[in-house]
Design goal:
Complex I intermediate-associated protein 30 (CIA30); 6-stranded antiparallel sheet; Jelly Rolls; 184 residues; mainly beta; 1 helix
């Protein structure tokens, strides 16, 4: 069984490398098969905040997606809700994050954690806006801002450990749907 897993893993990494060599993109998640096993909901209540929310995994025809909804509150030093998943591997030559999203017109964020983001409040962040229609968002790794000066200036694809979709930083109603998460 271990040999089969190794062969499948090597094949998947080889296929990813070929796609990137050809200028392609890699989808990390399309929310079609058991996303509740990979994604977890986190709110600022873990640190005493007052934000509330939830994630629902939905499908409509051939489309599957995650829907993050809730009330973001900055009361009591809070101010976020998010869904987050671990990343097994990202091609070293990935240039950025690619999303297919729609939402309520609010601004949302992608938070990346790396092998260098050790403390819970450390991350790299880039924002994106939503509309009521599905749209592709591309966020170059170079556009991600570090949460503190003790982190490297730009996240490296080879060190990425997790990705989060976050409603953050101000009082508002969150409602964002994510159909694909990947890298280009």
């Amino acid at each position: 069984m271990k040999i089969i897993r190794l062969i499948v893993g090597v094949f998947a990494m080889s296929l990813t490398a070929v796609m990137f060599a050809a200028g392609g993109q890699v989808t990390v998640d399309d929310f079609k098969s058991g996303p509740e096993q990979r994604w977890r909901f986190v709110a600022d209540t873990v640190m005493g905040g007052r934000s509330t929310g939830q994630v629902e995994f939905k499908s409509s025809g051939a489309e599957a997606y995650a829907r993050l909804t809730g009330d973001v509150s900055t009361a009591n030093n809070g101010g976020f809700i998010q869904i987050r998943r671990e990343l097994a591997s990202v091609p070293d030559d990935a240039q950025g994050v690619r999303l297919l999203v729609r939402g309520n017109g609010e601004r949302y964020f992608v938070h990346l954690r790396t092998s260098g983001t050790i403390l819970p409040w450390q991350y790299y962040q880039a924002g994106f806006s939503t509309t009521g229609a599905w749209r592709e968002v591309r966020l170059p790794l170079a556009s991600f801002e570090r949460s503190g000066r003790f982190l490297g200036k730009t996240p490296k694809a080879s060190s990425l450990k997790s990705i989060g979709i976050v409603a953050f930083g101000r009082d508002h109603k969150a409602d964002v749907e994510i159909r694909e998460v990947g890298f280009y």
